[in-house]
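Changelog-adjacent note: as of this version, every example in the card shows the full chain rather than a window. The one below runs 209 residues end to end.
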Amino acid sequence: MDGDIILNWINTTVSYQGPMQSEIELNVERGEQSWKDVVYDTSDIKLSIKLTPISGLALNLSTSKEKTIDFVNSQSGDLFSLSPNITLNLGEHFQSQIRYTHQKMDVAGGELFKTRLIDARFIYQFSVESFIRLVVQYNDTERNKNLYINNIDENRRSLGTQLLYSYKINPQTVFFLGYSDSAFEDDNMNKLQKTDKTLFLKMSYSWLR
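Full-length structure tokens:
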């Protein structure tokens, strides 16, 4: 833009497919990126592994180490990510998926933040027409407020749940009944506090001409 670089990078990917529906992919990236008139050197190494050891069980693991930009404080940082994922199918009716994500960023002054996220989903399929689903999401983040230019909470936690029942009356008409709630905690609280509860009913219909 106006002769100044915004983003420039080169990327190399190597992948392998093997037994048990396994896939391994290594991605290496190097480049530079502009932020607030400063050009930062960036790099990223990502490794992804997928495996189906037995029928109905899928295992995924992804991890990465990045030299990137802390956009909040306008500085360079090293970001580490790790995310295992398990999908389990029991028979024709039940499926569950649990994903855990861990991230932390280090900057010149030390560890900037660390966050953990759990996303769990459970689905029971009664028939082609109906299913019930439970979703639970939990987030826990710790920040070093001395390394931030703005005033922020050192600790933040949140918990959200949703229970949904769906019934397909016909291909054009779907009925939903659900409940959801959420809880939140920051530096001003000593435990998770419920912030809202929602009970909802929805019907979707499509008119065909």
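Structural remarks: The mean pLDDT is 94.
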